[in-house]
Amino acid sequence: GENATSKEGQWLKSQAENNLSICNYSLEFDEVLLSPHPLIVMSWPHETHLESQAIRRARRVNCDLPATIRLNGSQSGSVESITAVIDNISTGGLELLFAKAVSFKIGQSISIAFQIILDDRKYLIECDAEVVSKPRDSGPSSSTYGFALKSLNDEQFAVIHAFVSDRLNHRLGPQLYSK
Length: 179
Hints:
This protein has 1 helix and 10 strands; from the N terminus they run ββββββββββα. The protein is mainly beta. The protein is elongated. 13% of the residues are buried.
């Protein structure tokens, strides 16, 4: 490929993302050296050239938890159940993977039930959830959807929070104490 030419005083717009937020920022090329090796010295983003937006309210961890989804049917009193796997979870929401493509509308409400095990104790979480996302390239149906958790009581919130914290602790370093 061709070498891009950069000059002192030019600006570079960039974007960085972490688990909770996304940042847009601009950097100015302070110095451009071509020899003995190419080097570009850039300024640190100034406050006026920095924009940050929260994309998540809570930390999210990967998991592999079976779940049951209940849909309120259009017929009076009928309920349809679908099994799925929770791929990642936070106290604010989760991502579900389905064995086959299903069709949900953004904003649609469902009921979800799943179990979390903490220190050999089992906790059943049953709550409502709302469809908030699906892959952009999917058509009317998809096998992956994002859900916001609704109607969590304090105990359910605490259990999910403890599960997420436990997963983060295990991911960040070796376990110091074992049973």
